[in-house]
Amino acid sequence: MSGMAASSGTAVDTQKISVLFVCLGNICRSTMAEGVFRSIVKDKSSPYYNLIGKVDSCGTGGYHIGDEPDSRTMSTLEDNGITNYVHSARKLRDSDFREFDYIFAMDNANLADLERLKSRSKNSSSSKARLMLFGEFSGTGRKEVVEDPYYVGRDAFEKAFEQCKRFSTNFLQQTFPDATKAA
Fold first, then answer.
1. Strand pairing class (130-133; 17-23)
2. What SS3 state is found at 102?
3. Predicted pLDDT at 2
4. Is the pLDDT of residue 97 over 70?
5. DSSP 13
6. Are 149 and 28 in contact (CB under 8 A)?
7. Higher model confidence: residue 87 or residue 11?
8. In the chain, count of helices (H) and strands (E)?
9. What secondary structure does DSSP assign to 61-124, as a single string?
10. Nearest to residue 87, comparing CAs of 159, 147, 25, 144?
């Protein structure tokens, strides 16, 4: 799971880790996390560039399949300089447990749903995914959840952005501790 890319920057995709972000509907929190994470790892000036392969997000429910992210998610990303994020909501697939190294849940209910779905997976023995609460990378010494901002308002989207940025940075620093030294 932790295949560090070669220092030459020519690592093959199989050495890169893959990350999936999960919430309930895939239009607010998981898309926020994906947009933030992508902005860090796909930036050629980032020390984490070329270390991450596939990045995606999905929902445990199929309420918004095919929808774009919530407009407040998009405006929050844009207000923070992330202007190229595009996504179409999708529901978690059984194959996600085999295709992703890390699957990050936004809250404890999402994590419980993921654990239940993984246990029912047709090929659970071949799963490589490590299921975790994204907030395990809070940097505060305690796990945090990313609250669903959908019914709360713009301030909640700003808080979700701040958490996703902090959790992403902490995850990358912990997963690739030598990356910033090589940069």
1. unpaired
2. strand
3. 41
4. yes
5. G
6. yes
7. 87
8. 6, 4
9. S-TTTTPPPPHHHHHHHHHTT---------B--TTHHHH-SEEEESSHHHHHHHHHHHHT-TTG
10. 25
Residue in this structure with the two tokens 């989207």, named with its chain if needed: 157
Would the pTM of this model clear 0.85, i.e. be above it?
Answer: yes
103: nearest Cα among 67, 172, 55, 64? 55
The DSSP output letter for 91 is B
**Which helix or strand (DSSP H or E) is residue 173 part of?**
helix 154-175
Q: How far apart are CA 91 and CA 11, in angstroms?
A: 30
Convert the pLDDT of each residue in 49-78 to its tens digit. Answer: 999 999 999 999 999 999 999 999 999 999
pLDDT at 90 over 70: yes
- Who's near 4: CB < 8 A, 6+ residues apart? 11, 15, 51, 176, 178
Bridge partners of 102?
A: 19, 130
Digit-coded pLDDT (tens) for 134-160:
999 999 999 999 999 999 999 999 999
Q: What is the largest CA-CA distance in the chain?
A: 47
Residue pair 33/69 in contact by the 8 Å Cβ criterion: no
Give catalytic residues, as residue numbers: 23, 29, 148
